[in-house]
């Protein structure tokens, strides 16, 4: 268990150090079993996150470590895990470029390169709701029914994965993809891969 807590703390520090979130923003969780998760606490310095600060949280919302409180977004973490038994990790952050699309309500074109197509699929939007509310959890869960990457309107980004590394990778690749979208517009507009090229990528990736 301590090894898993160290991994969660490490990826939270990495999320901050790579500029994908701020000191007070973002949260990470991993599934322990069908009834428990580990999640980062609220009101702590993300750049110095320690394993001892990571909270073991039950699906009913109860927890033992009273020295720290679970992230205020623990509600949507729990609901995603309940509705997506195939995933083991969740990363929520506020990367500048990707979040710029979220607050503009504009989609990120992930069909510009094979990497983004393969890793991200098609990101979707979750309608805005006040942070920490049941409405937000409902909106997020619905968005994750057909995607592994969700842009939260006027809020931030959530990615999920079968491992914590996969969820983190999706966050990082999405931010790079968003940056490429913006910079290519400055250069006159991106040229997307053709339907035939996308089909070839999909065959290469998913026909095995």
Any key phrases for this structure?
L-fuculose-1-phosphate Aldolase; 208 residues; 7-stranded mixed sheet; globular; 7 strands; alpha+beta
Structure description:
By secondary structure, this protein is α+β, with helices and mostly antiparallel strands. The chain has one domain: L-fuculose-1-phosphate Aldolase (3-Layer(aba) Sandwich). Helix content is 42%, strand content 16%. It has 7 helices and 7 strands; from the N terminus they run αβββαβααβαββαα. It has a 7-stranded mixed beta sheet with strand order 3-2-1-4-7-6-5, sandwiched between helices. A hairpin with a 3-residue loop joins strand 6 and strand 7. Helix 2 packs parallel to helix 5. The chain is globular and about 55 Å long.
Question: How are the SSEs ordered, and which strands pair?
Answer:
Layout: H1 2-17, E1 27-33, E2 36-39, E3 55-58, H2 74-83, E4 89-93, H3 96-104, H4 114-120, E5 124-126, H5 134-143, E6 149-152, E7 156-161, H6 164-186, H7 195-206
Parallel strand pairs: 5-6
Antiparallel strand pairs: 1-2, 1-4, 2-3, 4-7, 6-7
């Amino acid at each position: 268990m301590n090894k898993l807590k160290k991994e969660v703390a490490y990826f939270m520090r990495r999320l901050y150090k790579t500029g994908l979130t701020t000191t007070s923003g973002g949260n990470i969780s991993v599934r322990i079993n069908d009834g428990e998760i580990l999640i980062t606490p609220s009101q702590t310095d993300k750049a110095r996150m320690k394993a001892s600060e990571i909270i073991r949280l039950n699906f009913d919302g109860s927890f033992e470590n009273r020295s720290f409180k679970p992230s205020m977004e623990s509600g949507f973490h729990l609901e995603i895990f309940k509705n997506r038994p195939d995933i083991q990790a969740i990363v929520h952050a506020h990367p500048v470029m990707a979040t710029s699309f979220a607050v503009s309500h504009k989609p990120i074109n992930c069909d510009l390169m094979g990497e983004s197509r393969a890793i991200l699929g098609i990101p979707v939007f979750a309608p805005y709701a006040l942070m920490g509310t049941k409405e937000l959890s409902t909106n997020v869960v619905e968005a994750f029914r057909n995607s592994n990457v969700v842009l939260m309107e006027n809020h931030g980004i959530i990615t999920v994965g079968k491992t914590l590394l996969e969820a983190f990778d999706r966050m990082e690749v999405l931010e790079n993809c968003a940056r490429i979208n913006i910079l290519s517009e400055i250069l006159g507009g991106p040229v997307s891969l053709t339907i035939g090229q996308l089909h070839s990528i999909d065959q290469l990736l998913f026909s095995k």
